[in-house]
Amino acid sequence: MNYEDKFHKVEDILNNWQDKNFTLPGKITIIKTLAASQLVYIMSSLRTCFKSLKDIMICFSNFSGMEKGTKSNGLK
């Protein structure tokens, strides 16, 4: 499986949970346990480009409700 397949799987996971009314700590738990865990192996064994990391951060911040450019999500 390549990076794009895993990224789409992560998007699907987050889309399934998007309509639930979670607090921010609840959303962070979903990201850490269900989404980020899908990417750990492939990102640790393959070279990952900056664009891929940025796409992941955008996906996570969109799910959590954090705006791009805030201190909390690390994107500027």
What is the topological layout?
Layout: H1 3-17, H2 24-45, H3 50-64
Helix pairs in contact: 1-2, 1-3
What's the quick description here?
This protein has 76 residues and is mainly α. It has helices spanning 3-17, 24-45, 50-64. Helix 1 (3-17) packs antiparallel against helix 2.
Low-confidence stretches: 72-76
- The overall number of domains is 1
Q: Give the helix proportion (percent range).
A: 55-70%
Number of helices in the DSSP assignment: 3
Large-scale geometry: globular
- Rg over CA atoms, rounded to whole Å, is 12 Å
**What is the ordering of alpha helices and beta strands?**
HHH
Notes on the structure:
With 76 residues, the protein is mostly helical. The chain has one domain (3-66). Helices cover 68% and strands 0% of the residues. The protein has three helices and no strands. The protein is globular, with a radius of gyration of 12 Å. Mean pLDDT is 82; it is low at 72-76.
List its traits.
disordered C terminus, 0% strand, mainly alpha, single chain, 76 residues
